[in-house]
Amino acid sequence: MSENFSIQLLFEAFWWDIKSVFTEELIFRGALLYILIKKLGSKISISISAVAFGIYHWFTFGVLGNPLAMLMVFLGTGLMGYAWALAFYKTKSIMLAFGLHLGWNFTYNTVFSKGPLGDIIYISQGGNELTGWLSFLNFSMGMLIVPTIVLIYVSYFTKNTNPI
């Protein structure tokens, strides 16, 4: 547990997560995806939104210029962005995408202290930073499994109000 943990810090971190998710959802699903669907149709628009979301996270994660990190961030956030764009399209609402996004960010940033907020609840101890392809395999086990599960959920268990 983090020595800094407090209920106030937890609420401040949750509020930060809400604001960041709200902003990203309005940009990538609320504006970009909505406009693209009207102009290009759903399939290509969902993909464009996911690619834009993945590239955007190169900057927020600070990995620009590190090809392996860029690939890992792009795959993880792009796949998750695809699932959230599909959720937006299938439900005709931003709410499912917002809820899934908030759940992920709160868990990642706040519970496991992996985001830009520093140590909130749990902190990792010990170990060595992985580099090279070993890092990619470790990443694949975490950052690709969760987005894949979310994509499966959205694809098969979310009511489709828009046939694709």
Q: Describe the biggest sheet?
A: none
Quote the average pLDDT: 90
Per DSSP, what share of the residues sits in E-state strands of 2 or more residues?
under 5%
Structural class: mainly alpha
> What is the terminal-to-terminal distance?
45 Å
Bin the helical content: over 70%
**SSE order:** HHHHH
Number of extended strands: 0
List keywords for this structure.
about 160 residues, 5 helices, globular
Concise synopsis of the structure shown:
The chain is mainly α and about 160 residues long.
What does this structure look like?
The model has no long low-confidence stretch (mean pLDDT 90). This protein is mainly α and 164 residues long. The protein has five helices and no strands. The protein has helices at residues 7-40, 42-60, 67-91, 95-111, 132-157. Helix 1 packs antiparallel against helix 2 (42-60) and helix 2 (42-60) packs across helix 3. The radius of gyration is 16 Å and the shape is globular. The longest helix has 34 residues, at 7-40.
